[in-house]
Amino acid sequence: MMKKLLSCLLAIMMLLSVAGAFADEDRYEQSNVLIKFLNETDLKTKDLALQAQSGDKTDDLVIRIDGDNLHLVTRDNGTESGHVQLNPTGLYMKSGDSVTLLRYATVTSVMQEIVKSVDAMIEETIKNLPEEKEEALTEKELKELKAAVTKLGILASAVAAQERADAVTLGSAAVSFANKFKPEYVLDVKNDDGSVEVSLRSEAFATALAEALDELMSNPAMAELVDRHAALTGGMTFAQAQKEWLLNREATLDAIRTIKTTGKVEENGHITSHFQIGEETAETKVLVYDTDSWVDAEDGEANLTATLGFKDEDPLVVYEFAVAPDYYREKLTAGDSVADVRFNLENGQITSGKVVSVMDDKEELEAEFGPDYLYVKTPEGGISTSVRETWTGKLRYEFVAETAEGEESSIVVDYYEDDDSLVCELNTSESEDSALFKLSRIDKINVDDLSASKNINEITADMIKNELVSLLKMVVSATSAVEAPAK
Q1: Which of 23, 152, 232, 299 shows its CA 20 to 30 Å from the CA of 289?
Q2: pTM for the whole thing?
Q3: What pLDDT digit, counting tens, does each position of 309-326 carry?
């Protein structure tokens, strides 16, 4: 009987999607037909039935609400095969000529007993924990304890004082370091006809960096701080840092002197920047990074193009970005590889889009989607889905899957009204027969009141506990069998 219930509950899930399928008034100009169908059903003269039909076989679940009673009756080709009734007392289940009752109060009682048993086990475990042996401290031990506490207090004060001293050392070194890079010393600023252009004085920047690091590497307070932390963490000592700086000082400064960087902001929202580093020789090339962007704050639009590569050569990487109230796009190109994402927006929500991924000139993914379609293509195959209204008024969902070899499989789901039924019809390319799921109005059927049956077998708390014990024994037995070594 439970199998039949599950089969019909599947029909419920399929048919409830009818509500969503017909609810989009803007696209199909229809009201929610499920609510309309239920409102127009006279439950005094009709029952509701969820029906699953395949070939000549029909399974249905008849639903009747009678006062405080909910009846669920399963039928095979019109013949009753099961009956469940729920009311404020509990759940009644018919099997043959007898009825089984499970009271809600019984379930609650069993759960409460389980909770109490667990609490009792926890309390017993706590009581049985070994207790530490308590012995009175001698006068000598008390003095030693007081001395230790005092020493800890002194150490804590010393640590706090050291932390404050370290903060002063770091703060002073940072201020002195930053003062070497005063904007008026390392930057050129030009104002020209509503635009501002800022460029770096590379020679001045290199000189400032040399002075700042030379001073830092001769700071005794920093040396003591770094060495103390190196002893604790195993990191680089101050002497090692000095050696690294001396070894790389001139090469670093020479590289910085080759930097050329500018940034320009115009009143019309045009922003550009240029950065390059390196000196072109037979062995080395100049690395270049450029950005070009437009920002329209009034209309909420912006776009950016950023390129990275070597001077006078095709860029290695190109990044493109564009955003507007109704549009969003990101694209990254690296040689023959491309990642491209585009979305159309409406009121901040994505309405359609496209995603493309190409690796080494080979397309790995192409996906397009919109309000009524989805298309995905990969080297392994592809899928496509669509939704539309047919000429006969059916709402049709189509799903097609295609392998790399060109083999196709398809599923078509139709939603429509048919006399006194809302219908979900399922067709696949693998079968000539269709499967039907219906929510139908049917003439009232004879339904017994199971709570008034003369032959009721009640499930007691002891029966539930016995079943739980049996279940636990099965779990323990299975676990033991898994853990036992193979002979």
Answers
A1: 299
A2: 0.64
A3: 999 899 999 999 999 999
